[in-house]
Amino acid sequence: MYFSSLFLFWFSYHGSLVVLHHISTKKNPIPQRIVHGTTIEIHRNIFPSIILMLIDIPSFALSSHYYKSYWTSIVSECASSRGWASTLPYEYWDYKSSIGQSLTFGSYTIQEDDQELGQSHLLEVDNRVVLPAKSPICFIVTSDDVSHSWVVPSLGIKCNVIPSHLNQTSIMEYDQCSEIRGNNHEFIPIIVEVLPMKDNGYRVFSQYIPQSPNKQQ
């Protein structure tokens, strides 16, 4: 990027000198060749395009390298929500079971009659989202019915969940879906729990894998 900027400065500087030389009345008293020259007009359009392409190539490569290097220890999640039920399905793409399937579970709202002492009203779920501590996290969210919102303001996260779109955002916190689209839709709770990396895998597998077939149904 530094060399591209240096080349652009050098090219612009020398191009300005050439233009000043040709518009001089002593060197070029009849300026028709410069004012109406087809060749210079073609060069004027082609060379800036080439310069922009030379700047774009390292920029795109740098952006791609940034995402690949930063999300090396990623734990991806997909919250595909359904508006007709007070639940948010989650999927851990980086965690595989013994048969090679990614871990999928539902995070269902615990009704008031089933809540235990100390649990938060309208904010408690049966399965919390468990994330590794001190590790970069990437959330990829989508919806299969209506628009939702995966939002945890205390973490500075608010990501719109739109059907047929994949939105990405980059950890124990409580909040709710902020879209009102149906029965109990405004009371879809979201709980995220962050654990040390060494405990996260054991906690996730031991808690969800035996129950995952039932939760998916």
From TrEMBL:
Keywords: Copper, Electron transport, Membrane, Metal-binding, Mitochondrion, Mitochondrion inner membrane, Respiratory chain, Translocase, Transmembrane, Transmembrane helix, Transport. It catalyses: 4 Fe(II)-[cytochrome c] + O2 + 8 H(+)(in) = 4 Fe(III)-[cytochrome c] + 2 H2O + 4 H(+)(out). Its main location: membrane. Residues 57-211 form the Cytochrome oxidase subunit II copper A binding domain. GO terms for biological process: ATP synthesis coupled electron transport. Residues 1-70 form the Cytochrome oxidase subunit II transmembrane region profile domain. Its cofactor is Cu cation. Transmembrane segments: none annotated. This is Cytochrome c oxidase subunit 2. It comes from Solanum lycopersicum (Tomato). The lineage of its organism: Eukaryota, Viridiplantae, Streptophyta, Embryophyta, Tracheophyta.
